[in-house]
Every structure is written in C-alpha cells, then in structure tokens.
Amino acid sequence: MHLLETALERQTQRDGGVSHGHFKLLVLLRAAENQTLGLKYLADFLRFSQSRVSHALTALENQGLVTRRPTVGGRRASEASLTDDGRRLVEQVLRGQRREIRDPLFDQLGDVDTATLGDISSRLIRSLDESRSGENAVDPTADADGRAG
Q1: What residues contact 8, with CB distance under 8 A and at least 6 apart?
Q2: Pair 97, 8: CB distance under 8 Å
Q3: What share of the chain is helix, strand, coil (3-state, %, to 5)?
Q4: pLDDT tens string 78-112
Q5: Element housing 121 (H / E)
Q6: What is the reported pTM?
Q7: For 38-54, what is each residue's pLDDT tens digit?
Q8: Residue 68: beta bridge partners?
C-alpha cells in the first residue's frame, strides 16, 4: 500500500500540482450529484478530520479548483463544489493514473486475479469499517448532508 500511495502522490503532484490527499477530495466532488458535497460528509468518507478537510479546501479554493458556501437551510454547515478548472484537473490526473499506474498493475493480474483482489479488498474494507462502527461510519449513498439516498 505504501508503494502504491507513493506512486499516486508522485504522479498526482506532477500531473495536477496537488497532493494526493487533496486530489481525493476533488474526485469525490466530481462523482457527486451536482459535483457538490457537505464538508462533514467529505471528512467522514475520507476519514479526515474536519480541520484537515477545511485546510485542504482552502488550498484548493486558492487554486480555483473548488468553491465553498453555506448549505441551504441556514444551518452552520458548509458544502464544497468543484469548479470547471477542478473538473479539468481531475480528468488530466486520472488519465495519467490510468496510463502509468492502474493499467500496468491490472494488466499483470488478468481477470481472475483482479476479481480475487476485489473480493479480498472488499472483505478487508468491511472488516476495518466494522472495527470502527462506534465511530462516524459513512453511508457512501448519502447525499451532501449525509442523508441516505
């Protein structure tokens, strides 16, 4: 895992000028409805502190990749949205990751080994999520406010 994270960090910095941790926020926003998510949801999903998410979003805002605003409804919560520049950066970095990291790794595995890796990974993730069940578990189908969808 460390070697993979190191390769992703190096490629993301080179192709996007952002850390891989910040890039994960951008990818989540890109996949979200209206490319917008609540800050609490981002923190919970990535297992980041809310402070870490806030600092990351400040850096990404300064680069013009995201915008932040209070959520609708007058609560003190905020949400982040991906900008057009953010979308372009995500596409650029993902193309490089696919070409340099994903395809070479999975081409070596083949279909059976890839399916086996997926099964093992799912079980490991499920076990790790269960071990933190007392913490703020996140429903990945939840909307930007964390409501199950």
Answers
A1: 20, 97, 101
A2: yes
A3: 65, 10, 25
A4: 899 999 999 999 999 999 999 988 888 888 998 89
A5: helix 103-131
A6: 0.79
A7: 999 999 999 899 999 99
A8: 80
CA distance 22 to 42: 11
Element at 92 (helix H, strand E): helix 84-97
**Residue 62 phi, psi (nearest 5):** -60, -25
Backbone angles phi, psi at 108, to 5 degrees: -75, -25
3-state secondary structure 53-71: HHHHHHHHHHCCCEEEEEC
H/E stretch holding 81? strand 78-82
Q: Other CB atoms closer than 10 Å to residue 97's CB: what's the count?
A: 19
Torsion over CA: 10, 11, 13, 19 (sign): negative
State which amino acid sits at residue 54.
Answer: S
CA–CA gap between residue 117 and residue 90 (Å, rounded):
25
CA distances (Å), 32 to each of 1, 97, 128, in order? 26, 20, 24
Q: Kindly give, in sequence order, each residue whose CB lies less than 8 Å from that of residue 119, ignoring residues fewer than 6 positions away.
A: none
Give the residue from 18, 2, 41, 35 showing the smallest Cα distance to 141.
41
